[in-house]
Automatic annotation (TrEMBL):
Annotated GO CC locations: nucleus
Record family assignment: Belongs to the Nth/MutY family.
The keyword rRNA processing is assigned to this record: no
Reactions catalysed, as given in the entry: Hydrolyzes free adenine bases from 7,8-dihydro-8-oxoguanine:adenine mismatched double-stranded DNA, leaving an apurinic site
Superkingdom of the source species: Eukaryota
Cofactor section: [4Fe-4S] cluster
A molecular function (GO) term: metal ion binding
Name this protein carries in UniProt: Adenine DNA glycosylase
Length: 492
């Protein structure tokens, strides 16, 4: 949705939509589909019926056999809810993650929490552990909160509007669950569907750019062809706004909405790819306006639809990360060695914001111009002392403190460079005395190596841990080689 109506109305028209629309009008020959009343969309009609039929036929023959598609097919009571839960979990996992990766996560998730009731009884810790590596941890938190909400209410909501009331479920997931599990005639619009619709109708506007998925009263819609929709604005005929949900909603097969939505997504995910669409195998190629335009004009490519929106540059952050290892024996060789005697300090992140509530090694953001080793250590010491109440100097002796390397982790909007150091401490007292009194013990943990290996760490933190492991192994190898070399020199 255009956030500012004025800005929306002032938007400069682009030439391509007009040209595309004009050319597409010429291509649409079905007079029965013309002249829809002003203010309505008329994507239905004979052509739309043909698209539905051809798409569904193709889907039946080619659909991928995915575990969530088999859920609830056993028959008997509860099938719909079982399917709804499966669709919900899989769709949340599939956001930003490839299908082969999700299949494995999904199977393990379902083996552990086969129903919404089972999930509702889980803890956030357990869910985070299961989710570790999938990224976007907020989704895992919402799944758990949503499950609790559904169980509390007593039943799985059956309609898209009721599903949207559940924590973390938006238009997309609500549409997927309602149509696939409960047969509601609602559209599901993800990036794949936008691409297919954009090409079918030769609409170059990209919803990420300026137009909208949601309904708005700002403009009037007028259909002038079976597949052509031109938006006439009250404030000027040259402005184009798109509502892909609206268009897709007109196409959804009323008798098989779930299969239709899956077929659209499947087409976008397989044949109608971003850069190399396989138009010769496409079941709806004879209806595809982008393909028709490209065959008439060599300068037009189907991949021009929808227009590519340049990604916003991610913010660059820098962090000092200190892997604090408590050595139970202060001999350096033993301290480097991997073994269950060593303990590692983990800190729980705040419950809000990036990676909320997840465990990490002590980390502190540093300014871009101040990433030198001296400043990083100063910031880390301050963090340990002031925020965690850990007084390293008073409570321990530092056996080793060395830089291990850097790791760059890319979040959706942040490029985080982590400067990793290893600090090995020998404690003067028991480990629980390392922190001053008053430290909230639920926010930090000392865990042994075995526990670090098995716990659900984010992929960035896992990478940091592996860097430290490699570093220690390298040092051990170097240590073991020194006497050998000395010996061999003596022999010469
Ligand atoms: S014909 Fe090509 S561009 Fe058009 S919908 Fe099919 S795969 Fe996509």
């Amino acid at each position: 949705m255009a956030k500012n109506p004025k800005a929306a109305n002032n938007r400069r028209p682009t030439r391509k939509p007009r040209a595309a629309a004009a050319a597409a009008i010429a291509l649409s020959g079905d007079i029965e589909d013309l002249a829809a009343p002003s203010g309505s969309i008329k994507a239905a009609g004979a052509a739309a019926k043909a698209v539905r039929a051809e798409l569904l036929r193709w889907y039946e023959a080619n659909r991928r056999d995915l575990p969530w598609r088999r859920a609830g097919e056993r028959g008997g009571g509860g099938g719909e809810e079982e399917r709804a839960y499966a669709v919900w979990v899989s769709e949340v996992m599939l956001q930003q993650t490839r299908v082969p990766v999700v299949v494995d996560y999904y199977s393990r998730w379902m083996a552990r929490w086969p129903s919404v009731h089972a999930l509702a009884a889980a803890t956030q810790e357990e869910v985070n552990e299961m989710w570790a590596g999938l990224g976007y941890y907020r989704r895992a938190r919402f799944l758990l909160e949503g499950a609790k909400q559904i169980v509390e209410k007593g039943e799985f909501p059956h309609t898209a509007s009721a599903l949207r009331e559940v924590r973390g479920i938006g238009d997309y997931t609500a549409g997927a669950i309602a149509s696939i599990a409960f047969n509601e005639v609602v559209p599901v619009v993800d990036g794949n569907v936008v691409r297919v619709i954009s090409r079918l109708y030769a609409i170059p506007d990209n919803p990420k750019e300026s137009s909208t998925f949601s309904h708005t009263a700002m403009f009037e819609l007028e259909a002038v062809g079976g597949f052509i929709l031109i938006w006439k604005l009250p404030h000027g005929p040259e402005q184009f706004f798109l509502d892909y949900r609206e268009i897709t909603g007109q196409l959804v097969d009323p008798s098989r909405p779930g299969d239709f939505n899956q077929a659209m997504m499947e087409l976008g995910a397989t044949l109608c790819s971003k850069t190399k669409p396989s138009c010769s195998q496409c079941p709806v190629s004879s209806h595809c306006q982008a393909l028709a335009l490209s065959s008439q004009n060599a300068s037009v490519k189907v991949t021009d639809y929808p227009r590519v929106v340049p990604k916003a540059k991610p913010r660059c952050d820098f962090a000092a990360v200190c892997v604090v290892q408590i050595a139970q024996d202060f001999d350096q060789g033993i301290a480097y060695a991997t073994g269950n005697d060593n303990l590692f300090l983990l800190i729980k992140r705040p419950e809000k914001g990036l990676l909320a509530g997840l465990w990490e090694f002590p980390s502190v953001l540093v300014n871009e111009g101040k990433t030198d080793g001296l400043n990083r250590r100063k910031e880390m010491d301050k963090y340990l002392k002031q925020l965690l109440r850990i007084d390293v100097k008073r409570r321990s002796s530092v056996i080793l403190r060395e830089d291990v390397g850097q790791h760059v982790h890319i979040f959706s909007h942040i490029r985080l460079t982590m400067f990793v150091e290893l600090m090995i401490l020998n404690l003067k007292d028991a480990v629980d005395k390392l922190c001053d009194e008053g430290q909230d013990s639920t926010k930090l943990r000392f865990i042994d190596e075995k526990a670090v290996e098995s716990m659900g760490l984010t992929s960035g933190i896992r990478k940091v841990y592996n860097m430290v492991k490699d570093f220690k192994e390298k040092r051990l190898t170097e240590q073991s080689q020194v006497p050998t070399r000395k010996r061999s020199r003596r022999l010469k």
